[in-house]
Design brief:
Layout: E1 5-9, H1 17-23, E2 29-34, H2 39-45, E3 50-53, H3 58-81, E4 83-88, E5 91-96, E6 100-106, E7 109-114, E8 118-122, H4 125-130, E9 137-141, E10 144-147, E11 151-155, E12 158-161, E13 164-167, H5 173-183
Parallel strand pairs: 1-2, 2-3
Antiparallel strand pairs: 4-5, 6-7, 6-10, 7-8, 9-10, 11-12, 12-13
């Protein structure tokens, strides 16, 4: 897993660092560096990770980078550990959210497809959608919710996820494609 950390100076030729930051749709973690204290408050309006006042000591630089590194590691661990329990085949089964490829509606049941299993659960797609993270899952059709991180490619109105082709509803197409492309969460 890779992360992006941007060190951004405020005063640059042609465009200020804050103008650049405001133009980014999905900015990475940012540490602002500047010789001027007055930009600190403005920087935090952009949700910057830290603010380093020049001249920057190595200790202060290291402290900022380590704090961000620790926060990113904690985020990734909590994401990978998230799970749900579902009742399937008279058992309560633990399913990691990262393992879910897609969920398909089947009337009053849903099929949860993972890399290694299919679980049929007595619940509705709507109920399941309410328990999933909107950041990682999106409803693409009245019968399907997909895990955005498992989308491999898009062919017309079909999403390729593992060895499955999932339809995208016409009325959701623009919204779905904007979320997928703007969040840049398509797997490589």
């Amino acid at each position: 897993m890779s992360y992006c950390l941007l060190f951004l100076d405020i005063e640059m030729p042609h465009i200020s660092g804050l103008e650049l930051l405001s133009s980014l749709q999905n900015p990475p973690k940012v540490i602002i560096t500047s010789a001027y204290e007055q930009y600190a408050i403005k920087g935090y309006e952009f949700n910057v990770a830290d603010y380093l006042l020049k001249p920057v000591s190595f200790d202060r630089f290291l402290k900022a980078v380590n704090r961000i590194h620790d926060a990113l590691i904690k985020e990734s661990k909590s994401d990978s550990d998230e799970h749900i329990f579902v009742k399937s085949d008279k058992q309560l089964k633990k399913i990691l959210l990262n393992d879910i490829l897609f969920i398909e509606s089947m009337e009053n049941y849903i099929l949860i497809q993972t890399h290694s299993s299919k679980e049929i659960v007595y619940t509705t797609l709507k109920n399941m959608a309410e328990s999933l993270s909107k950041q990682h899952f999106i409803q693409v059709h009245r019968s399907y919710i997909v895990n955005i991180s498992h989308i491999k490619s898009i062919e017309g109105n079909l999403l390729n996820i593992h060895n499955h082709k999932i339809p995208v509803a016409r009325n959701l197409r623009e919204k779905v494609f904007n979320i997928i492309l703007n969040n840049k969460l398509i797997s490589k």
